[in-house]
Design a protein that fits this description.
The structure is a homodimer of 351-residue chains. By secondary structure, chain A is of the alpha+beta class. Chain A folds into two domains: 146 residues, PurM-like, N-terminal domain (60s Ribosomal Protein L30, Chain: A), CATH 3.30.1330.10; 183 residues, Phosphoribosyl-aminoimidazole Synthetase, Chain A, domain 2 (Alpha-Beta Complex). Helices cover 34% and strands 23% of the residues of chain A. Chain A has eleven helices and 13 strands. In chain A, the strands form three sheets. In chain A, strands 8-10-7-11-9-12-13 form a seven-stranded mixed beta sheet, sandwiched between helices. Chain A has a four-stranded mixed beta sheet with strand order 3-6-4-5. A two-stranded antiparallel ribbon of chain A has the order 1-2. In chain A, α2 packs parallel to α3 and α4 packs across α5. The radius of gyration of chain A is 21 Å and the shape is globular. Chain A starts with 9 loop residues before the first helix and ends in a 5-residue tail after the last helix.
Chain lengths: 351, 351
């Protein structure tokens, strides 16, 4: 993977040399960061605000495949995935800590590439890297990111606040990341079988980018503030629309009606899913890794948001006894199913 | 490892089933925890205080060996190691997030054991588990813990505050954890060569416990407050006394004199090190995993602390040009050497 590049063995540097090398380019941009890397703990200051904390673990072979994931993109994605959780609370993300477990196949240059992607993401989203841990690993690449942010108490959106009649909204479009992954895995398979065939991702930029380099929807949180909308409940779409809607409903003790025809799916996602004999709606429901925001708003707020091209109203909240249902394009009613871990394996049997 | 016990395959439960199962026993004890597990992020409130954050990654085969580490102890230790960083800032730890990567060899019962140790540690130290992530792992057990705490701004002890003439103090005793590890590794080797020979740890409880079940020194932070001592600098001893003293000196831009004869070493550590043909002082300097607190105090504070059996004054801070030196029992002067990752491999060549 790194054959043609300069290779500096991390074991030559030692832990402290590695830490110096990767933390050299860290700058602090938030006034809430009182002390970043370099002590036993970071010191943060959120005067009058609530502190938000979320954490995610990314493991090689489970969450990413280095055969087709550039390290810089992986670093970028590792940050986005985490910031998304803070935005899903209707908060602003301000800091992250980054822990890395590195197997001996990774030279310093690889770690620097990974870190560069992290720093680009942090800079773009106004977030400081304030701490972390580095370790050797016998087990491939391990990335653990904890994100920290803040919100005024009255701004925080929990999963549990949805009320009967609230409109269910989702930002952006869904399913693209999952379909992009199918494409990357197919190209990998072709490449392994015949290394002289170069991957053909022509015209598939959008769905590939959605998989490799997702963007957390800070802009949606800002837009909601601008429109003076406080969602009654919110969650980010990491496991697929279906299980996220179910989380909102269960934690709010409500039911829902979702309309298949309202689920936003990009044309490229739709076409490529069809090429793979996948149902585009199932990709949106169970694919995951979209990192869009799913939220509920009061009907009275509909007029404020209806002009936004970036938000789709896909259904509404019902009383709990009505169940959690999807109304298909043909008018058939399907109960929603939750997907966790093994969604990717099960999806093909879901049609 | 789990052959004789009940085995519930985690893949049967799914991610959400696993999360339900392990979070069922979580209780909240801190008023600063506004919302714990169960949403996109935890919500914390540190009115008028600074927030402290630290994170550590523990990887199977690098940081722990499941051949001789009971999972309950491992869970306990994973928490302690992290809390130690918050205490090293002179703060109080209040929350942790816990991420686990689990390979298929771990049944639910194993995860529950690990988690039980974590909950015991959290309960004992008054800390809430407020979030985390669970994932399958192709790579053995991965544990990532982020600890969160608070302190008044004026109470926080950085590594950088040591002044010339300050006394260098350390809590407890050093080297025991490293020597305990040598003993466990020897018994493992004997057991592998001849499984009919049962491990003989008779009379070695203290050093084995120091390795398997360390305690973060919350009590020392409380004692310092009680004595109205604010250390001028503080750090916890995770990599060995030598590299921690060097961190304090470098970040304070100072030198130091350490006295070998003052370094606190438990008699069992001393004897066992000798049995292994190890220099007990080198074990204290470079062994690590003691999780004691190393701190500097003004000379004027000496009278307040001199009666404490749990704190040793082991040297003093000098001007930077005097270097960082250890005065041996025979009066010889040695420059201190830093150890990072590979300390355990290099230590035997250090005498």
């Amino acid at each position: 993977m790194f054959e043609n590049k300069e290779r500096t063995d991390i074991s030559e540097l030692g832990e402290f040399g590695l830490i110096d090398s990767i933390t050299r380019n860290i700058t602090i941009s938030n006034s809430s960061t009182k002390k970043g890397v370099g002590d036993d703990a970071a010191v943060l200051s959120f005067e009058g605000k609530k502190t938000l904390i979320s954490t995610d673990l990314l493991l090689e072979g489970i969450h990413f495949d280095l055969m087709f994931t550039p390290l810089k993109h992986l670093g970028y994605k590792a940050i986005q995935v985490n910031l998304s959780d803070i935005y899903a609370m209707n908060g602003m993300a301000t800091q992250v800590t980054v822990s890395l477990g590195l197997s001996s196949k990774f030279p310093l240059e690889a770690v620097e590439e990974l870190y560069e992607g992290m720093l680009i993401a942090c800079k773009k989203y106004g977030v400081d890297i304030v701490g972390g841990d580095t370790s050797s690993s016998r087990q491939g690449l391990v990335i653990s990111v904890t994100s920290i942010g803040y919100a005024d108490e009255e701004e925080i959106c929990y999963r549990s606040g949805a009320e009967e009649g609230d409109l269910i909204c989702v930002s952006g479009d869904l399913g693209a990341s999952y379909v992009g992954l199918q494409l990357l895995e197919l190209e990998k398979k072709i490449f392994i079988e015949n290394p002289s065939i170069q991957p053909d991702l022509e015209g598939k930029d959008y769905i590939v980018e959605r998989q490799l380099k997702p963007e957390a929807r800070k802009d949606i949180v800002e837009m909601l503030k601008e429109f003076s909308i406080k969602p009654t409940a919110m969650i980010d779409v990491s496991d697929g629309l279906s299980s996220e809607v179910m989380h909102l409903c269960k934690q709010s003790d409500k039911g829902c009606k979702l309309y298949e025809e309202k689920i936003p799916i990009d044309p490229m996602t739709y076409e490529t899913a069809r090429e793979f004999n996948l149902d585009p709606t199932v990709c949106a429901l169970s694919g995951g890794e979209d990192y869009e925001l799913l939220f509920t708003i009061k009907q009275a707020d509909y007029d404020k948001i209806k002009g936004s091209a970036d938000v789709s109203v896909i259904g509404y909240i019902t009383e709990p006894s009505a169940g959690m249902e999807l109304i298909s394009k043909s008018g058939r009613v399907h109960p929603l199913k939750a997907q966790g871990w093994n969604a990717f394996n099960k999806i093909s049997g879901e049609n």
